[in-house]
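Narrative of activities, Objective 1.

The group set out to show that a structural description can be obtained from nothing but a protein's sequence at a throughput compatible with the screening campaign. Below is one input-output pair from the validation batch, recorded exactly as produced.
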Amino acid sequence: MTATQTPVAASIRPRPKMISYLRLAKARVYHYVYGWALGLLLLRSDGFLSGGTPLAMAFMLVGTLAIQWSASAADDVSGFLNGSDARNYAGRPLVTRVRKPLLTGALTSPEAIGFAVVTWIGGILTISLAAGVLDWRVPLPAMVVAFSVPALAVQYSCGLKLSYRRLGLESTIFFTGVCTVLVPYWFAAGTVSRETLLMSALFGLWLLLVVSYGNASDRAGDAAVSRKTLAVVLPPLAFAVVLHVLVAVNAVLLVLLFTTTRLNAGFIVLSAPAVALQLAQLYYGVYRRQLRKARFLVLISIDLGFLGLATALLTGRPS
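Output recorded for this entry:
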């Protein structure tokens, strides 16, 4: 082991830089694509997926991923520099620690910062290209909301450090999740439908559940650097109540989606597997304190939730 290597870095086989950058971007968290896909399916269902819209939506997908990757990289840089990642990942299995290339030495801070900047600029450009393909006939409020996402993303861990303020992390995650569904539809359709609003809220809630269990797992490290997540600022019992409320709100939104819109009400059964997994999340996360298992179940529930909504849009909506 050289003088510049950490014990973790010395025990990890070298990987291509591209792999390290993908780990920095948390590219394995592919779930943001689901939000974009729901927006696409809603456009198809409403007859807006024609002309230059498919190309515009392709640019929106690239922009969505670029902004997500930029925010993830900036968050890792912040966590590396303030030491919270070192605390949160101390003692974890090697297969988990390799997901933090700054901790392992696979990437340097300047490389990570450069990646965050390049992907952020790329996201801005591709969202602009999406509007250009649509001949800039995008409503001004939609443009404002669309560009507020990268503006907030860059302030998540840097600048204003929204994730270090009370409700800042949770609000940012929910808002960006909502916009992942809402903005593509709004760009192309020029308006928003009730289905779009409800699905956007559902998707934002799903991402918030993922982050909530992760924050509970990282509670000690976040508290040490004054990151004021709900898991840090609330007593454990109160935080458990919040998790129960989020799952309950998810159920209410599903009922509203299938009873107050043109979706076939009978297709609500397609969401039953996702709801069942959310109840399992509560059991393992709150009552068994197996937080990483609960977070894994949240991710699977998003897979199932997306499949249920996608199937309902493709086959369960009258023309």
